[in-house]
Amino acid sequence: MRSGALIPADDRPSKCSAPTTASPSATTQRWHSNHNSSSPSSSSSVNPDEISHFNALAATWWDPHGSSRALHLMNPLRHDFIQTCRSSSPTSSFTVLTEDSDLPPSPDAANTSNTENVQELRYLDIGCGGGIFAESAARLPTTSSVLAIDPSPGVLAIARSHAKKDPSLSPKLTYLSSTIESLPTLKPEAVEKKFDVVSCFEVIEHVDHPALFLDHVAQFVKPGGWLVMSTIARTWTSWFTTNFMAEDVLGIVPKGTHDWNKYINEYELRGYFEETEEKRRFWGRPRAMGVVYVPGLGWKEVPGSEKVGNYFLGVQRLASEDA
Amino acid sequence: MEAVARRKAAAYVCRSCTRQFQRQLRRNYSNSAPRPDIYDVVCVGGGPAGLSLLTALRANPVTSHLRVALVEAQDLSKVKSWKLPPNKYSNRCSSLTPTSAFFLDQIGAWEHLDQTRVQPYHEMQVWDGVTDARIEFDWAPGSAPVEGTTIAYMNENLNLTSGLLKRLEELGGVSVFEGAKVENITFGEETEDLDLSQWPVVHISGGKQLTARLLVGADGANSPVRAFAGIDAKGWDYNRHGVVATLEMEGEGWGGEHTKIAYQRFLPTGPVAMLPMPGNYSTLVWSTTAENASLLKSLSPKDFVAMVNAAFRLSPVDLAFMHTQGADQDDEYSWRLQHTSFNPRAIPQTVVGVQEGTVASFPLKMRHADTYIGERVALVGDAAHTIHPLAGQGLNQGQGDVQSLAKTIEFAVTHGQDIGSIMSLESYVSERYTANHVLLGVVDKLHKLYSAESGPLVPLRSLGLNAVNALGPLKSFFMKQAAGSGTKLF
């Protein structure tokens, strides 16, 4: 990507101390917890500066033309990606609701298939923010419950007051002001308390110790369930599009939202799940999907773009023993 | 009481949603306030657009669990049981493009139309009354689209609404409030654990209140839903009236029973169109001045028939003179016809009668709403746009709206979006607004172009018609557009 970079190397953002190439060398320190000499001082993965930043954004979170419009537009893709993940897994009996309505079957067939295919899926949404994903997950007919957590009290207040506007949500959706670390730990055998889908969308790039964070998250994923993430690759393109263009020039993302140094490349994130024999027994093969924001059109899936910009990564938990 | 409500809820929604309702019921009954009657979709207006939308939602397994209601001022049982003998046709007919017919077939409604009363047509003859420049829309060998040579289907509006109601009855699950007037639309209330302050509440006659996640205005050109949403509609009146009538012809047309032809002649007062119905019948749509329209309505059947025959044959000057006569147009027509030369095969066969009580008129307008959506509101059909009838596109635009809105709702449901939020409805506007706007504009300009009797536009427009007729590929492109089967231009 460097050859095509729009910013000359000398004009690099000053805060950028990361390597200029997409080589794993300097980042592995921060990234791979088991090689990290010093463990983090706090028990939380979340940076306090990040919390105050998102508190300040709370007011416009649900404005369709406000600061979070790009997130609103991305949300349907999150469901598409989860659908793709779940329908790919051999252990899942989940039936995909088809969007293709060319020839709707008879109403009787429709009703029976609808009720028969309902699977009571439990979701855990980590870093739920104003609840864009959490609300939508709770509305799906296949969902039984959504536990949505976020450490920023300001955004959580917004999430709670917005959820009051839709009476269908309250039976399924619970918000909790919490980090993943402060949730009660689950014993391996407590399968029924675990989740079919654990999501952390646009979260990992805001976390100080991603590997420790993921180590902790693992226990909440039900065997056969999926851990689904989305984040941004650390490349010149992503610096140009998400930091420079999106925040500074176009203003479609609030200024100060992203710290490019915290971005994680797809092979780094994938590497976490594949680095040891133990991890490979625990997790299935990660699936990735790269997406690109096209102004005026919204988010589009672009195969291969996971290497350069925004991407999803989903990984299924295989084993029943804990990590 | 709760058990009754639970049973009621179960009739509308799937089992998992019923469980949700039950949980809500229990919670809400502990409060003193009455439980709001919440629907996912409340559709105001049971015309072709509203009924098609509800049918589309009910017929699709993805959206069939939605709780839907219809509010209609008319008594729908009369519409559903509508029946006319084979020698009588309603005067309110519309042209359905193959695209609209395909959509109606997809949602299972087409087969419920009385097919003996649906008339496909395969050719169009359009000419300029001032210059006689002509365009013949017939299919050159090899130019016919694979979908077939049908340009459109002529159909009585009541045959469509009646068929849609039969299909809806078969599907079930719609709470129908018929003979119900919308008395007011307000917003819901905010309580400690529920904020419905942005949810429309439809108050209908009899005191019933329906709370809507999505309120659909399919309630016509003077849409109360549009007024509630504060959406303005801009446009103008044409100072023209559309005169309609059911006509009896001397035969079943020059092409016989299997090749029916639609005719349209542009007169300085507006276009006059004759569209084929089954057998020896045709339907008339004559756009003309308000004065001419009231004269036509006052004439005896014999004189009315003479005026219609004159409209397709005599010169605009002769015709204008006949509009000044209070009566006896029949004699005047017979005399003037001898002095007019024309190719009888290029114009409709002679009208021999008019069905009693079918001559009627309505004012023509062009209106376009500023947008089709608001928070928890969507407009479809005439509530969103009113078009000049010269291209026969009004009902088809409404069907296009409905198809797009149903698709938008389906996407929202599969992606957990709130179907009433602006965010989910955006794609409906972006898909339909420009398409409708272009068509409204083109038809408006056509009307204005052909309303001129003299001046620089007249030779130019005949050049246009003749040129189009000579250019085979261009003509076939236009025909495919008319049939909705061509490359999507709009």
TrEMBL record, chain A:
Keyword hit for Transmembrane helix: no
Amino acids binding Mg(2+): E202, E205, H206
A GO term from the CC aspect: extrinsic component of mitochondrial inner membrane
Biased composition (Low complexity): 17-45
Cofactor: Mg(2+)
Bilayer topology term: Peripheral membrane protein
UniProt pathway: Cofactor biosynthesis; ubiquinone biosynthesis
Catalytic activity: a 3-demethylubiquinol + S-adenosyl-L-methionine = a ubiquinol + S-adenosyl-L-homocysteine + H(+); a 3,4-dihydroxy-5-(all-trans-polyprenyl)benzoate + S-adenosyl-L-methionine = a 4-hydroxy-3-methoxy-5-(all-trans-polyprenyl)benzoate + S-adenosyl-L-homocysteine + H(+); a 3-demethylubiquinone + S-adenosyl-L-methionine = a ubiquinone + S-adenosyl-L-homocysteine
Descriptive protein name: Ubiquinone biosynthesis O-methyltransferase, mitochondrial
Gene that specifies this protein: COQ3
UniProtKB/TrEMBL annotation, chain B:
Entry keyword annotation includes Mitochondrion: yes
Family of this protein: Belongs to the UbiH/COQ6 family.
Organism superkingdom: Eukaryota
InterPro entries given in the database record: FAD-bd, FAD/NAD-bd_sf, Ubi_Hdrlase_CS, UbiH/COQ6, UbiH/COQ6_monooxygenase, UbQ_mOase_COQ6
EC number per UniProt: 1.14.15.45, 1.14.15.46
One Pfam short name: FAD_binding_3
Pathway where it operates: Cofactor biosynthesis; ubiquinone biosynthesis
Gene3D superfamilies, alphabetized: FAD/NAD(P)-binding domain
Purpose of the protein: FAD-dependent monooxygenase required for two non-consecutive steps during ubiquinone biosynthesis. Required for the C5-ring hydroxylation during ubiquinone biosynthesis by catalyzing the hydroxylation of 4-hydroxy-3-(all-trans-polyprenyl)benzoic acid to 3,4-dihydroxy-5-(all-trans-polyprenyl)benzoic acid. Also acts downstream of coq4, for the C1-hydroxylation during ubiquinone biosynthesis by catalyzing the hydroxylation of 2-methoxy-6-(all-trans-polyprenyl)phenol to 2-methoxy-6-(all-trans-polyprenyl)benzene-1,4-diol.
Keywords: FAD, Flavoprotein, Membrane, Mitochondrion, Mitochondrion inner membrane, Monooxygenase, Oxidoreductase, Ubiquinone biosynthesis
Location of the protein in the cell: Mitochondrion inner membrane
Cofactor: FAD
Protein name: Ubiquinone biosynthesis monooxygenase COQ6, mitochondrial
Species this protein is from: Neurospora tetraspora
Keyword Mitochondrion: yes
Quaternary structure, from the entry: Component of a multi-subunit COQ enzyme complex, composed of at least COQ3, COQ4, COQ5, COQ6, COQ7 and COQ9.
Annotated GO CC locations: extrinsic component of mitochondrial inner membrane
UniProt topology in membrane: Peripheral membrane protein
Reaction catalysis annotation: a 4-hydroxy-3-(all-trans-polyprenyl)benzoate + 2 reduced [2Fe-2S]-[ferredoxin] + O2 + 2 H(+) = a 3,4-dihydroxy-5-(all-trans-polyprenyl)benzoate + 2 oxidized [2Fe-2S]-[ferredoxin] + H2O; a 2-methoxy-6-(all-trans-polyprenyl)phenol + 2 reduced [2Fe-2S]-[ferredoxin] + O2 + 2 H(+) = a 2-methoxy-6-(all-trans-polyprenyl)benzene-1,4-diol + 2 oxidized [2Fe-2S]-[ferredoxin] + H2O
Residue ranges of domain FAD-binding in the record: 39-433
GO-annotated molecular function: 2-methoxy-6-polyprenolphenol 4-hydroxylase activity; 4-hydroxy-3-all-trans-polyprenylbenzoate oxygenase activity; FAD binding; oxidoreductase activity, acting on paired donors, with incorporation or reduction of molecular oxygen, reduced flavin or flavoprotein as one donor, and incorporation of one atom of oxygen
Top-level EC class: oxidoreductase
